[in-house]
Each structure stands twice: as C-alpha cells, then as structure tokens.
Amino acid sequence: MSSATRAGLSPNGSPKPKQGELSALQAAAQREIAAAAGAGAVDASTGMAVGHVSNYLSLRLDRPLEGCQLRPRVYVYSKLMTTTGVANKAYSNTDHRFQYTWSRGPERQVCANASCPRANSFSPLEWSKWALQGTRIQCVPCHKLRVPRHRSVFCNVTCFKEAWKSHQQHHEHVRRQQALATGKEQPPAASEFSLSPKKAVVVAGAGGEGEGGEDLLKPEEEEDVPINAQVMDEEEEWTKISTDSLYTPKEEDVGHCLRLECRAVLPTGEEVCTPRMITTEPVLSTPPLPPRRSLVTVKGVGSGGGVRFRLCSYNLLAEIYATQQAYPYCDFWALSWGYRKTNLLRELLEAGADVLCLQEVQSDAYQQFFQPHLSEKGYDGLYKAKTREGAMGKVDGCAMFWRRAKFRLSENYTVSFNECARRAVAAMPGLPQEEGHHFLMRVSKDNVAQVGCWDTAG
C-alpha cells in the first residue's frame, strides 16, 4: 500500500466536496474581507489579520487491536478570519497528499496497581466495559510530580483504593529523586502530596478511543524537573514500523503503544500545515473466538421427497450502522469491522448452507471481502445495493450466494420498494397530490429485494 494517500478523500474514503461547494463559505466572507482590507483590520483575540486563512490537520485513531486494521481518520481544514472575529471552518481544497509514519513504543503496564488483573494483561475481555465497572482515574500528585502517565493511571476506583497506601510511598520516592536531580538540599514538603484518595484523583476518560489516548491532565509548565534518567530514556524508545496509510497491529505490538505522525504535503514538497502526532493506548491482544452458535433442527420438515438443501438468512449489521452511538454498551473492538467480518465469515461457513440470503451487506464489504472469500469456498453470488445515495462503497444492500456445485442460476429479479410505492400512487388517479406525497414520504425507505430461481446442477 502506498505511503501517501491522495488528498481529495474524506476520512471514510468518499470524495471530498467539490471546489464550488468549498468556496461557498469563502465567497460569503470575501465581501467582508474586501471591505476591511484597506483598513488593515486585525482580530483582537487572535492577532490574525482579517482574511487570513490557516490550515489545520485533524487526526483521529481508534484503540489498536491485534489483527484489526487501523484506518486513521484524517483531513485538512481551514479557518478563515472575518471582520466579525469568527474563524469560519471549511475543508481545505489544497492539492495535498498525506504522509504517515507509524512507530512502536516501549511496553508499559496499563494500571498502576500491581495486583490488578489488568496490570500486565492486554486481553480485551479484561478491558471490557463489564470488567472495568467504571472509568479510569489519574493520580493528581503523580501528575504534579511529572510521573509518567502509565505509572499514574488506574483502570478504576477499586484499583486506586487498593493501591493507595503503597502508592503514597511512591510519591515520597519520586520527590527525593527530583531533589537529587535538581541539586536541592531539601525535597518539597510532603504535606503537598498527602491527600486523601478522594482529593487525589481525577477521572481520566474512557480509554482514548478515537482520540489516540491523549492525557486528560496537561503537563505542568511552572517547573521542568526530570524524574530520573532511566524513565526519560524509556519514554523515547520508539521504533519506526511502517509508512503505509493503514496498519494492522501484530503479535509483537501487543502491550506497546503506537504512535502515528501525519503530514499534509503539497506536490512541491511544502507542508500545508503543522504535522499532527498522536499516541494510542497499548495494543490489545486478539479477542477469543465467540462461542459457536447452536443450530436447532426442526423435525418433520422436508420429508416430502425431492431435492434437500439448507438455506441461511443472516443480517450482518453493516459497518456504517455499527457505531458507538447506536450501541453505547458495546466495547469498541466488538464493533470493529476488522474483528466482526472474520467472525461473520466463519459463522456463515459453519452453517454449511447451500443458499445464503444476507441483509445489510455494505457494498465495499461484498466486493472486497465476502464475494472473494465465498467464491474460494465454492459459492457464486449476486448483490443489489439500496437505492439511496451515499459515499462510494458505503451503501448497504442484500446479497445472495449459492453453491455452484449444487445449483445453477436460471433467473433473477431485483425489487425496488421505492418504485413499488410510486407505482401504487400512480395506480390511484383520484388520490389528491398532497396525500400521495405523504404516502410516498411514509413508505419510501430505499429498501430492495432480490429474487432468484435455480436449477439443480448436473
């Protein structure tokens, strides 16, 4: 895969808005800019001249999971200052491309409580919402002492309470190290860090999903005190592992943080804006296989003779619908398409069906995954996407697969329910136009269906 992805694509791979669409905001602001140009207007809050355009790079990444492909969500946007002092945003239409650098960091413990089952475990089951029973917290004294994040964050309140007595001793040890490193005769007063557990914690978020695992608490700027040389060196042990736009974590990545640096570059080599760099939470290991689904046999069915065959109907839940907003109780890795698609394929093959009828099959999933893999297993297939508009490959539909060794397709038809609704309205000439419009609004859902007729092969 190329190390630079061509600009012009939105984060989900769809074409970016056209030039005319992008210029709407700019055209609206140009009138104000022209009026203020002669006066040399400057925005008081930012110090930026009116009409000044600044480019920024947005970069988001889910928590990495072994074997599941990471796809950065990246785009460049512009801020345009107007005489109102408001920075209007728009997608940048510069002819740029993105360059990526992936690095692997040192292995770190993921909970500062040494007796926590997750302290040195990277199983997604241990890190599930059910297992955590709450959110992570960060120790405030550790933050003030500039203790590395992975040594000051606890996976939940229970772990923090269990470790609090011994953890307080760590504060004293770090303070004395800082005193030696800075040459101070006396370390800071211990009372500054002798807090109760309730006053010594701050909620540290939900694990960095989608944000790259950034710190909740920002580093203190008043002092620049090294903790100790060994820790500081450990923080810099990053190994370059890829320059592709996509990356699939491997077994050797489990327990390590990943770092992604992204740059937007013009054809001349000039950077469009300041590069962005994010660091993920430690990579989780491959989740265990889900239990095999038990098939229930209905006795007495198919006893009339003739050809016997097995049919399987399955709603796959398209990737575009499997979101944290729709399923907030579900862990991110269980919704990840990279994890789900392999389990779905395994379950379809385990069913041993002669005919597969699949719903909510995304167009790109059919073309790039299910059709090639099922073809290798002896299936032929047909696909029909819904009639609604959508980004390329991001519209779902229905698919049919059948064993080519058992059946030969003789006829097939597609049904558009929107077209059926329009025909129904047309068949009622006396229907008032307004009622016909309301009827179409209620029944038009862009749904489709497929009908297939097969002959037995041979």
Brief characterization of the structure:
With 458 residues, this protein is an alpha+beta fold. It has helices spanning 19-37, 129-132, 140-144, 157-182, 229-235, 332-335, 337-351, 363-376, 417-426, 433-443, and strands at residues 4-6, 53-60, 73-81, 87-91, 97-107, 137-139, 153-154, 201-203, 239-242, 256-265, 276-279, 311-315, 355-362, 379-385, 396-403, 407-416, 448-456. The chain has 3 domains: 4-94, no CATH class; 104-279, no CATH class; 311-456, Deoxyribonuclease I, Chain A (4-Layer Sandwich).
Word description of this protein:
This protein is α+β, with helices and mostly antiparallel strands and 458 residues long. Helix content is 25%, strand content 24%. The protein has 10 helices and 17 strands. The strands form 5 sheets. Strands 1, 5, 9, 10 and 11 form a 5-stranded antiparallel sheet that branches. A hairpin with a 5-residue loop joins strand 3 and strand 4 (87-91). The longest helix has 26 residues, at 157-182. The relative contact order is 0.12.
Report the order of strands and helices: EHEEEEHEHEHEHEEEEHHEHEEEHHE
Helical fraction equals: 25-40%
Shape: globular
> How many DSSP E strands?
17
Number of separate structural domains = 3
Q: Please tell me how large the radius of gyration is.
A: 29 Å
Task: Output the number of helix runs.
Answer: 10
What is the fold's blueprint, element by element?
Layout lengths: L3 E3 L12 H19 L15 E8 L12 E9 L5 E5 L5 E11 L21 H4 L4 E3 H5 L8 E2 L2 H26 L18 E3 L25 H7 L3 E4 L13 E10 L10 E4 L31 E5 L16 H4 L1 H15 L3 E8 H14 L2 E7 L10 E8 L3 E10 H10 L6 H11 L4 E9 L2
Parallel strand pairs: 12-13
Antiparallel strand pairs: 1-5, 2-3, 3-4, 5-9, 5-10, 6-7, 6-8, 10-11, 13-15, 14-15, 16-17
